[in-house]
Amino acid sequence: MTTTFRCLIAAVISVTLLGSSAVAQDSNLELRDKAIALNRVTGDEAIMAKLRELYKDKAGLKKLIAEARSLAKEKEKELPLNYTANYILARAAGATKDYDSGEFFYKASLERAFKLHSLHKKAQVLDGLSTMFVQAKKFDDAYFTCQKYLDLKSENDAQDQEIEFRKILVSERMIRILCRKKEFDKALDLSELMLRATGDSWLFMQSKAEVLRESGKFEAALAAYNDTIDKIEANERMKDEEKKEYVDRCKYVLSSVYSDLKQLDKSIETLEALVASQPDNASYQNDLGYLLADNGRRLDDAQKMIEKALELDKADRKKMLDEGLISPDEDVANSAYLDSLAWVHFKKKNYDKALELMLQVVKHDEAQHVEIYDHLAQVQLAKGQKAENF
User: How far apart are CA 380 and CA 246, in angstroms?
Assistant: First the structure.
């Protein structure tokens, strides 16, 4: 190779690299401009519209979050992103499960909320941050953040009615967090405290029922859920449609409590009533179908119910996709419903179909738990496959 030719190649490579670098810089600048443009979003409705827009391009959103974080770190003293921009990026990062970036932007927005002396903005951040910590399974941080919410007060000590009401809901969240931490005694104590503080409200009777169930006290949970239903039905401030919604939620959980107590007929009866009342509820259809299949009952009916659940879920996803609430890569069948369908095929000895479905299920991130792999193992064993094959 001649010296001239080597120089020519080097020049070409240099120009190519410089071109690539320029393209990358342009891309970074474009992303930074997009992040800074979030400063101009105003109002809760506009924030939600912007979030829906960003969710449509999940890959692009991840790049935006990464570049916005770099910008914020580099220009820390200049504060290039205001409260709203940081809050939008925090919500978006949490939705993409980038919890580290979500925490970064939530804390940045909280700092700006304090600079603005805005009680509502502080509340908005702490509410969102505690919810994200729960999603990230950082339960100690979630509980601490909820406590900070409860400590909020206006600078003139006047109560804000909206925030005071939200404190009740945050207290209910704290009970659920304690359950996730397996601190059932503390959760029960807080439930009883809030029952007294709210005049024996149905919300905290329901919380108490949840704690009792989570701690394995199924008979006591059964009684508490029935008490909750009685309180809801006696509530004179609720509209009839609200009462029905909350009562149905309690009955849905009650069906599982009956199952925990080995009262199978009561569990099936409760779910059948819910399905009859709301035939387009995918969860009700799936759970009844799975319960029947798992106990070897009415397998043809069970299959139809689970297939309907999958159809309803598909229709819901299409609507959310059209509205920009989910991205195309999130438009996938519910793994729990696929598992239910696989299980009914297993019970019907359709092992090939059951295996085909289970192999789809285990590809899902949310399906990585023991029960799913136990189902897969049982299907493979039924097909005569050796342990080393799974």
Answer: 41
The answer to whether 55 and 324 have CB atoms below 8 angstroms apart is: yes
- The whole-number average pLDDT for the span 279-283 is 95
Q: What's the distance, CA 185 to chain centroid?
A: 26
Phi-psi region of 324 (alpha: psi -120 to 50; beta: other; left: phi over 0): left
User: Using CB atoms within 10 A of its CB, is residue 66 exposed (0-12), middle (13-18) or buried (19+)?
Assistant: middle
* Residues sharing a CB contact under 8 Å with residue 122, sequence separation 6 or more, in sequence order: 110, 113, 114, 152
Name the residue among 5, 70, 60 with its Cα closest to residue 32: 70
H, E, C per residue of 133-164: HHHCCCHHHHHHHHHHHHCCCCCCCCCCHHHH
- In this predicted structure, what is the pLDDT of residue 27? 67
User: ∠26-27-29 over CA atoms, to 5°?
Assistant: 65
The pTM assigned to this predicted structure is 0.81
- Over the stretch 141-171, which tens digit does the pLDDT of each residue have? 999 999 999 999 877 666 678 899 999 999 9
Cβ-count burial 201-210 (b if 16+ within 10 Å, e if not): bbbbbbbbbb
CB distance 313 to 333 below 8 Å: yes
Structure tokens at 199: 């005049």
Kindly state the DSSP code that residue 369 receives in the 8-state scheme.
S
* Nearest alpha-carbon partner for 37 in 46, 256, 169: 46
65 within 8 A of 18, measured Cβ to Cβ: no
Eight-state DSSP code of residue 385: -
